[in-house]
Predict the 3D structure of the following.
Amino acid sequence: MINANSNSAPISALRASVQALPSSGIATVFAHGLGKPGLIPLWAGEGDLPTPGFIAEAASCSLLGGETFYTHQRGLPELREAIAAYHARHYGRPFSAQNFFVTGGGMQAIQLAFQMTVGAGDEVLVPTPSWPNFRGAVETCGGKTIAVPMQLEPAGWHLDLGRLFAAVGPKTRAIVINSPANPSGWTASQDDLSALLEFTRSHGLWIIADEIYGRFYYQGGLAPSLQHLITSDDRVLFAQTFSKNWAMTGWRIGWLQAPAALGQVIENLVQYNTSGVAAFMQRGAIAALNEGDAFVETQVQRAREGLEIVRQALAPLNSVRFVAPAGAFYAFFGVDGITDTLGAALRMVDEAKVGVAPGTAFGEGADAYFRICFLRSPEQLREAMRRLSQWIATANR
Ligand SMILES: Cc1ncc(COP(=O)(O)O)c(C=O)c1O
């Protein structure tokens, strides 16, 4: 029982691991810039297109048609079937609906994955730079992340697998593999993934696989994937989301892919976390999967163009360290002479009127970089890059 001292601030009576959760560095810049006239926001991890009408209509028909009651904890059977069919179509092998569980966004899939595998004192390896929510989610479970820094090499960000494996200790329970990665764009090769799976199999570790940017891969087709390698018993939990592919970030719907044997445990966890995802949103999600391939292609093409605009703008700047990402839709670049990227990002808001995310948000080895999202209209992105290039070339460091 918590010994609540009525004289102390309520926060001091909370669990220590929750009190200690870091706030997002992106939020600081966001709060500074929000509502500033003329600002072009490239700080968030989302495109600028709204959800396509056919998806919104499917949700709205369901809502108006009265689908307003509690629903299946694992997700509507039709949606789970549609997710399995989507995977079969894209990965070229059969998938079973029994392996898919509908969640409140990719974020909740990640949270459930850690709730199942990580407890107080357990450790999770996370290659960095990384999306900060992996660490946050592990820490809400009482666990700890161990950063395994990647290096920026002439060919792009590189993860040294030997270094990753050497970081495994007696308390390690899981390894996070986010490929293509936010924010670096690092993308594992199929050989890397095979070696990783073999290693985790022999050490009894879980892989938390986040391949949500797998469609945004600039060498063509889908990014290399663990989907080609796993068997039904492998300790691999995939977090997935409707957010990015189908422009549905505000919906908060995604899925967890797990061995079917975990079904009852996952159902219980969903029950005790959120008690499921609204049925009408799931109808929208079914439309996204069944009718949304062309829209995803449009998004990928838009990202490709965006990457080219960013590449052309940054290439002539000698002070910029940038290698075009293999996947995802972020440019992650450093500027010689700038180490305080949070301070610089605040200045960019005021002086260049462009919102960027400071590297401080992305863990060990990321401080000296900035992240911008290039899944935006070419006109807006060109203007943002014109302003940023000018700021970089002339700003007083
Ligand atoms: C790597 C990664 N995984 C998962 C997510 C989760 O997305 P959502 O919770 O919107 O589904 C994001 C969002 O930015 C992400 O970048």
Remarks:
- The chain is about 40% helix and 15% strand.
- The first strand starts at residue 40 and ends at 41.
- The chain has a mean pLDDT of 95.
- Residues 45, 105-107, 131, 178, 182, 210, 212, 239, 241, 243, 249, 254 surround pyridoxal-5'-phosphate (CB under 6 Å).
